[in-house]
User: What shape does this take?
Amino acid sequence: MSAFAAIGKSARRVEGREKVTGTATYVADVHPRGAACARLVLSPYAHARIKSVELSAALQVPGVIAAFSGKDIGGAEILAIDEVYFAGEAVAVVVGETEAAAEDGADAVQVDYEPLPVVSDPIAAMKPDSPLTRAAQGESHDDAGAHGAAVGGAGTGRPKPRNVNQMVEFQRGDLAKGFAEADVVLEDTYRVARVHQGYMETQGSVAERAPGGGFTVWTTTQAAFGARDETAKFLGIPAHEVNVIPTQVGGGFGGKFVLVEPLAAALARRVRRPVRVILDRTQDFLVSHPAPGAVIRMKMGAKKDGTLTALEAELVFDAGCAPGAPTGIAALLLGGTYRCPNLDIVGYEVLTHKVSPGAYRAPGAPQAYYALESHMSRLADQLGLDPIEFRLKNAAKEGDIRPDGRPWPRIGLIECLEAARAHPMWRDRKKLGADEGVGVAVGGWGGGTEPATGGCRVNPDGSLTVQVGSVDITGVNTTFALIAAEVFGLPVEQVQIATNDTDHAPYAGASGGSKTTYTVGAAVLAAAQEARSQVIEMAADRLEAAPSDLDIADGRVFVKGAPNRGVTIGELARLANRFGSRYKPLHGQGRAAVHTASPGFAVQLCQTKVDRGSGMPRITGYVAVQDVGRALNPAEVIGQIRGGAVQGIGRALFEAMEHDEGGQLANATLADYTMPTAADIPDIEVVLIEVPSELGPFGAKGVGEPPAVPGAAAVVNAVEAAVGVRVKNVPIKPEVILDALEEGGKR
Amino acid sequence: MKAPAFDYEAPATLEEALGLLQARADDAKVLAGGQSLMPMLNMRLARPALIVDINRLPGLDYIRIAGGQLQVGALARHTAVASHPEVKKGWPVLAEAAAQIGHDAIRNRGTLAGSLAHSDPTAEHPAVLAALDGEVVVRSAKGERTLKADDFFLGYLTTALQPDELLTEVRFPALAPRTGSTFVEFAPRVGDFAVVGVAAAVTLGGDGSWQDVRLALTGVGGTPFRARQAESALKGKKPTAADIQAAAAQVAEAIEPDSDIKASARYRRHLARTLSERALTTAAERAAGQGGR
Amino acid sequence: MAKEKTIRVKVNGSERRATVEVRRNLADFLREDLELTGTHLGCEHGVCGACTVLVDGEAVRSCLMLAVQAEGHEVTTVEGLTTPDGEPGPLQQAFWDNHGMQCGFCTPGMICATAALLRENPHPTAEQIRERLSGNLCRCTGYQDIIASVLAAAAEDK
Ligand SMILES: Cc1cc2nc3c(=O)[nH]c(=O)nc-3n(C[C@H](O)[C@H](O)[C@H](O)COP(=O)(O)OP(=O)(O)OC[C@H]3O[C@@H](n4cnc5c(N)ncnc54)[C@H](O)[C@@H]3O)c2cc1C
Ligand code: FES
Ligand code: FES
Assistant: This one.
């Protein structure tokens, strides 16, 4: 390991200076000269026909510039035209001189609706007498697909219930036989709430006409090229006529792909001024795409010795009003994490009158693992086995066949479980006081892939400029700097990262799905290596030595064994950049299409103490173990893991988007949608496991998704260990624990 | 989420303020710390035509003791109340309640008077006012009146304050010697509005028996609930765990809480019981552990 | 409309004058009128703390104060906590060096809240920091590196 110069040493953020001094540019900070502000008018009904949209009063409001209905803008993707399918769907937009004026105008827009029947609960939607949602629309556009993970499954002719868009099925072996062989069979149903990504910066875009034609769009997105393509498509112009400038992203977590970019550009075209569309927190809650809620029925059988014999599961994902729920991934992970010869898993993607979900850190996995890991701990309990030993006995490893028939590559699940088993929190868990307990849970993520390119320019001052088209949402730019620095043996400060706009950037896919370091990093590595070869080749010519006799250190190329025969990298770049030079400029290009993912696993231990007065579990200790392949920048890897773990704790204790029967979101503010604060959580100890990937740069795997997965199950398993109460629905309602305690036992 | 348009006045004298309120009684709103009103304006849940900002009124931020009574001016902020040495010493229940409101930045602006005027059903201070038999001084161009909690809090976000009136001062009588007091609450997260909160003040007699017991709850209805039945059941007895438990159970019986997105009525009852028990126990211990407080 | 007012506010040490709508909140005044966009808006209802600034040295939510209320007062934003030549000040440096930020959106509010905390209590414990910063939400870091940054800043300041 110490063979590395830069890799594996914690580096602070390359963009840290601007962030700590308040000079970093987020999308709301972009004010092109003469910019106007837009405000959406949202439907109060979850399902209604739009009878009319009256804009004249809005146009009278001082400071209002223009107002449009869906018909005016033309494109039901951004403004509803005839019918609304969720409460909060945009039906009109008002443009004003200021945000306040636009909001004044929006208040004056009158929309006449004819309310239609609503179904907001997915289980109710599957009943034969349920109101119909938007017609099931064939193939799923799986946002998690954009995360790059595999989905699949073959149909077996099960009937498709009402309002189900898509079904996924995985079968193997003989289920009945499996249950017959089992000594213990456990069946139960678990519910996971719909939750929001909760990024601190709300979504928004700013667009203006570009002087040379086309449009410039500043936006807070994880996918600059995706935003470009969608915007161009909506405007009906070629993609190259839209230049997307990605701003700093104030948290994305999967939630920021494309949202109001097309609208901003369409408005800039219509009002002939730059237009800012910045959502406020409540509108963001209403119109953005959160993580779907799920109801998961589990039935598992195991022999006395802990061998799993059968797994039956039914997953219901609430897809809201449009397809795209990560049912396939959830089913795959649920059935593939432990070896089980007989299984039958069916997933339903159910349409309801809510906004359609999008991606949120490991889409589908937190839901699946909540059910699976709750069930695994309970089974262990019933079998009288240690929960970690039981998991170890069945844990998947390299070569085991997943439900989709493909074998697992080398994975670190077992190593993570072993590390958790060895941790003092686990070993000493029986020594805790009253109402205290420790729970364990596993989480995994398949990893993603997507081709990418990167550039590496050698500068006359001897530094490097790395050019990428991926957006930095997790500190990847700092990691890219480490990668390039490693290749050249330079200090990381000598590498500059340019996240370019789509006019100038080498192509890269979306930053998401824990694949940015894994794929763009590979391209950067290739680019840096190519630039290094160019440097060596040029130096060989200058020094009249064979390339294989040269080495680079401290910014200088020299002849091995004759260190004073050398030339600095800067000197070479100066020579190559000179008028009339016979050398080609030093500029490496790297391309990568890593098409095999490296799945990542995490195991988390939660220690809790339940307050008997309120039923509230307080988290008193937390350990996050994770196989990261190789921690290129340990501080940032650890930061990702802690942040992810706290999001998992949020799912366990606080977070739920609460819809009533009429489909209204009852908690569209940060006062009512509660996320963990610094005082709610303890220090989180991170244990890094490094089972190197064969494909990722220097062995790295994606680290962003797995830590957000196990939290909910780890917390409820800890609660059971503490007070013997089994919580089945998250977030935990303390009153449920209290009721169970009063009944004096387990439920 | 930008406030609707309004006119704005920041009067420099109390008379001027009262005059404005009288003239514009139907559409003016007082702005004190803004920690409740500003969110409502930003969300456009309030649409006053005129904001009367009282923050420039001189000399209203006092916290003083006069004749044993604690007097808190309309502009005294939660931070000042929570950290004031005399308040901590003489009225710990009030200091503790103030310290549990929101977060530092909220407490630096929000006022005790504003809390009472706003009368959120889960706010801390209304319960303190009720428990300590405090009173509010209310002024209008027409004159001044003082009101006790029972007459001041009328219902959900509703008080006896008239649109032309300003709450100028909050008063708390001195606590007798050998009095212990405390404020306890349950909120899922630090700094959140309480689900249920309990203010308690207990005075022990020379023989160690309950001489006076005062208990008021927030979060169990539209207005603070003074648990008089439970109080009288305890008076005269010697403090025992069993009696405290019985009194707490009685509190839970007597209240009529609502269910909402935060908690069911059943859960609020439960919290009322466990928090009352905790508050009474702590208050009695404090009373016993000194000459009081 | 008569609903405007000219105000003078001392911001980060210099006297600023502007005519604003009376309904404009302090955060928008700083961001839009003074182009000090380091102060962020994450909720506009007082919960997230991203807009925290110092008014006369005390932490306040700039989304819950009207700009006209700042007239005659002193406001310090994250931009005012740099060194005189715009380099990161000691507190900012501590956040940078100790990985106290990821996306950076909460960071200005965190830094302002921390400045107020350290002024009052120059050597807080980790627990006190957690309590005091509980009014500032961060979705990225899990808070621990923020706490470490504050502890490091406090240790620097002997
Ligand atoms: C994030 C957050 C968390 C909070 N947490 C809590 C909490 O845990 N507990 C809690 O109790 N509160 C909490 N609050 C609210 C806070 O305590 C407010 O300070 C308080 O409710 C109102 O006081 P104010 O001075 O800010 O009043 P303002 O917001 O200025 O006014 C509130 C209302 O009272 C009226 N009013 C104010 N003062 C007077 C007066 N002197 N005379 C007549 N009318 C007046 C106003 O017209 C308005 O209708 C929280 C607020 C926020 C933003
Ligand atoms: S923007 Fe002011 S607290 Fe969130
Ligand atoms: S660093 Fe992203 S919200 Fe704190």
User: Anything to note?
Assistant: The longest strand of chain A covers residues 308-318. Chain A touches chain C through 59 residues (CB under 8 Å).
